[in-house]
Design brief:
Radius of gyration: 31 Å
Oligomer: single chain
Number of helices: 24
Distance between the termini: 86 Å
Largest sheet: 5 strands, antiparallel
Number of strands: 11
Amino acid sequence: MARDRDPAVRDRAGRARYRRILRFASRHLAVTWWFELVLPRFGLRWVAERTRARRMQRFARGFHGLALDLGGLMIKVGQYLSSRLDVLPPEITKELEGLQDEVTPVPFPEIRALAEAELGMSLDRVFASVSPEPIAAASLGRAHRAVLGPVDSADTGLRDVVLKVQRPGIDRIVDVDLAALRKVGGWLSHVRLVSDRVDAPALVEEFARTSLEEIDYLHEAANSARFAADFADDDRVGVPDVVWERSTRRVLVLEDVSAIKITDAEGLRAAGIDPVEVAPVFAAVMFDQLFGNGFFHADPHPGNIFVTPVEPSGSAEAAEGERPWRLTFIDFGMMGEVPTGTRNGLRQLLIAAASRDGSGMVNAMRDLGVLLPTADTVGLERAVTATFARFGGMGFAELREVDPREYREFAGQFGDLIRSLPFQLPEDFLLVLRAVTLTSGVASALDPVFNLWDSVEPYAARLVRDERGNAVQDVARRAADAVGVAARLPGRLDHLVGRLEDGTLEVGSPRIERQLGRIERTARRVLAAVLFGGLLIAGAVLRADGDVLGTVLMVASAVPLLYALLAGRLPG
């Protein structure tokens, strides 16, 4: 084993942890190298193929045990790997998808000591009380209910809060785990079997970035404030306030907004709230984030969303259209942001999905950077079209009636096809898929017959209208450019002819002047035809939406059309 040069692994416990991770990785890499590279060279490829599924399951089970034993970031690694359906086979992802954030408890005195060191004072000076029993405990931190002291309560207007405290020593553990993962990523970059399919170091860096953000509570607080600003005027959404004066990178104090868990159907009904009415509102709020703001909650599982009853305003007119509850989001450690380019690609993907357009969906995937330009997408397009034909538009109640064997066969064929292509999902796209998947699951738990397409299609229709508007603007811009070129071209040609006449431009053919005249007339006709087409298309698009301007543009297009038709007959 190479010497450990990373500062994170210089202490004894860090070195032991680091080497244990590398031993596990090197052992399984050696097994893969032997079966997948060596044996096929001796004509024993059939041995590798016959044992592949069993070897992958053994690796996944081994990693599952390692992650539970080590805790720390390794739990997150397993959860991350379980989402990489694009680069890992189902034998691995299925084994790891149930990996929960199970951790050994930390004595409360250690939690108290870290919090007091961060705040620079005794907890008794900040809080009237702190419950020693955590309401949530994970490998990276834990949360306790607390009551603010009178001074802070008067300053903030809050009383009941949640105190989140980072797990003692987690910074060092995260550094050790990332150092080990970077080493493994470097190894994999030299294994052609892997490097041809996936950029392992890039995946490690994506994972490192999101992990480091997740253990920075000030980053989470900033996410919470930004999310609250996005929905400041939206009565569907609530966000807990942050007690900034009592928050640091390792300690976070938030308003306690605990209410009815979103999937607690009995609790909702007891509060007079119909779960079926909650489902489409929740889906709409999530799609607003994904396709509107571009900044979205990437972990909307049931534990992170409450349904909070709201007191009626008192006005009879307002109460009639008033919703007596709102959705309250918590835990903003895992957020996604969709860059403009990705957002445009997602819009095209959504439009294609809503219209069951397999070809359009594959093109959108390529535009998103999910597929490399060299990918042979004929098979993928055929598979996507077949998926739409069989399952497109089905609600969850209908999908449950499908024979599970058909699912398995379909999923197996589709998964094999995806993994055979140069296909790697960017981190932001992975978070989008995670958000959509969780949204779909929560909504179907609220309403067994919930159909995700019903929530998607209004967005697709709006995006189609937006695309039309963009198309009109693009046509108008191109038409304006054409007019500009047409206006400048005669002057440029006159200048050229002038240079010919005064002898400053020498040519060897006496026919050049006649040719220039014909070129000028042809150019004018071509530009007139372009202008006609632009005005006609823009007018047709606007007229389809009932816009009077569309009729005006279509009538105006007759002028350049007449010029284009008659210019050849006019004297030069």
